[in-house]
């Protein structure tokens, strides 16, 4: 490697300055601090899952261990801190390993949607005309059908499995991004610097991906962060309806589904089986809340009109 | 020798209000090495004409008729008949453009130096590669000395982690070239300015960057579209000096668009006066100022504010180009309009060597309009 290349000190690199700026903004607002802490907690939980809730040797770690076959749930005890739900599945184990499932569903679902959405929106916005009309009518069609119902239809058509749930979420989630990106591209493509790039002899793909997209993509990332929560929520709903993860798979929606028969408790004591729905419910609630708060924080941080130094 | 020849050029914009006849039968020759000033009011089609010269009229506009020929070393390129990807190779490298608002012509998310580098990497990659080969060592040298068709080169160029062996020496050479260009533009401390973002620079500095981008590939023709309109007067003078200076240094042919007669007098050798999509008068700068022939040119010159002389404006305003007036486009505002002016459109005719006028006061050649 030629030694003439000057190394920029870390403190002056773009990403470093950006990171410092981001941390400063997060520190300034209590809500984004809470959101960040919640998500950090979940990340920690996911990373440390094998230590917090050790899987049984030789078994798939996502398979929740069960301690008997009695349908009636058993209350929390020192061995099972969250109790055992219907069919004696361990709630604590399920909640901890369910975090990994939630992240997987969220990240894969959102990044898949983003990829499709950005591509479709960028092409539609940049080239316009007939292509725009066709792509945007497809978007309208997907929007016309309620998301959950469409996702259900996709899962049933593809076959029941968690992977297919993720694919269904991608296929349902992309139109939002497509519209956002298209709007951004339409706004940016009339700017002078795009014309200047054209006058410089840039090709269409270069203009679109190097000059237009970086200027119109911020809002999309904010929505994507907010969507992390709602994707997990939809996946949970699918599991609750019985077409998500297979029985016994560590997934929060699945655990809620197992508590369905015990929501009303026993006559005289409506909260007899409170632990069956409360614990997984709290996990889902906190996860979605965390992403929403973080999304709000990102909206402030990524706002390009803010002064950066 | 003419570098650019436009013949019978028509540009139409298809809008909801109707078809805008933005350029209506323009003939224009640009002589190699000269500075051609194009002057006219806002909406007279100055910018659109020069967009047409690069065959990049922005949609919904279209060149509906006519030819644009670009000549280089005896080779003729008919820009209006070439495929887009062929013209793209000429844009930036042969025909460059400076924009009116430098703040808007720079992409806010990239460092200014990288934006200049982009232009160089598009058109002068081979040259940069050759230079990089001279300074590169080790594996980089090995890779750079191979032919582009070599499978190893193709692989290394694209492979993450390995691609830097190919690109880093080239980028370093490009960076040096950009720094050289920036200092040529009179930018102090070009190394530091290289890594600044557009919003950190003043208008004058931004315009220098834009000019650096335009001149980075040593174009034969430079089109400057009101490059000083948005600048302070003192900065305007500096930029004008710079453009004149660089034109000499690079041997570029310059097309300078403005509505300011003072600037025209300062920079240009020849002047084309445009009105409502037509060229009404062409001549060398001295004779145009000394002895304007077309009533519109006269009006323009009389409307320059001067001490000791009352400002005289041209009554009325530029016509709507969806429905331009019949006959001569200028006749409703013309003091010396005759009956023929409202029925026939005067042709641009050479009345004296080097002097072309489209007015029935000087000749009787006209066209019936459809």
Describe this structure in words.
- Chain B: It comes from Candidatus Korarchaeum cryptofilum.
- Chain B: Residues 4-301 form the ABC transporter domain.
- Chain B: It is an enzyme of class 7 (translocase).
- The complex is a heterodimer of chains A (309) and B (370).
- Chain A is mainly alpha-helical.
- Chain A has a single domain, classed as MetI-like (MetI-like fold), CATH 1.10.3720.10.
- Chain A has helices at 14-28, 30-52, 91-127, 129-144, 147-158, 162-188, 192-199, 204-216, 218-240, 252-258, 274-302.
- Chain B has 370 residues and is α/β, with parallel strands linked by helices.
- Chain B has two domains: 1-94 and 219-369, 3-Layer(aba) Sandwich (Rossmann fold); 112-195, no CATH class.
- Chain B is built from 14 helices and 14 strands.
- In chain B, the strands form three sheets. Chain B has an eight-stranded mixed beta sheet with strand order 6-7-8-3-9-10-13-12, with helices on both faces. Chain B has a four-stranded antiparallel beta sheet with strand order 2-1-4-5, covered by helices on one side.
- In chain B, a hairpin with a 2-residue loop joins strand 12 (349-352) and strand 13 (355-357).
- In chain B, helix 5 crosses helix 8 (163-184), helix 8 crosses helix 10 and helix 10 (203-215) runs parallel beside helix 11.
- The longest helix of chain B has 22 residues, at 163-184.
- The radius of gyration of chain B is 23 Å and the shape is elongated.
- The two termini of chain B are 34 Å apart.
- The mean pLDDT of chain B is 85.
Class computed from helices, strands and strand pairing of chain B: alpha/beta
Tell me the count of domains of chain B.
Answer: 2
CATH overall fold name of chain A:
MetI-like fold
CATH class of chain A: Mainly Alpha
Q: Taking Cα atoms only, what radius of gyration of chain B do you get, to the nearest Å?
A: 23 Å
* Total count of domains of chain A: 1
> Which quaternary structure do these chains form?
heterodimer
**Overall CATH architecture of the largest domain in chain B:** 3-Layer(aba) Sandwich
Number of strands of chain A: 0
The biggest beta sheet of chain A, please? none
Q: Trace the largest sheet of chain B across and list its strands.
A: 6-7-8-3-9-10-13-12
Overall, the morphology of chain A is globular
- The tally of beta strands of chain B, per DSSP, is 14
State the share of residues found in helices of chain A, binned by percent. 55-70%
Mean pLDDT over the full residue set of chain B: 85
> Which two chains share the most extensive interface?
A-B, 21 and 37 residues
Tell me roughly what share of residues is in helical segments of chain B: 25-40%
Strand content of chain A: under 5%
Give the full name of the CATH homologous superfamily of the largest domain in chain B.
P-loop containing nucleotide triphosphate hydrolases
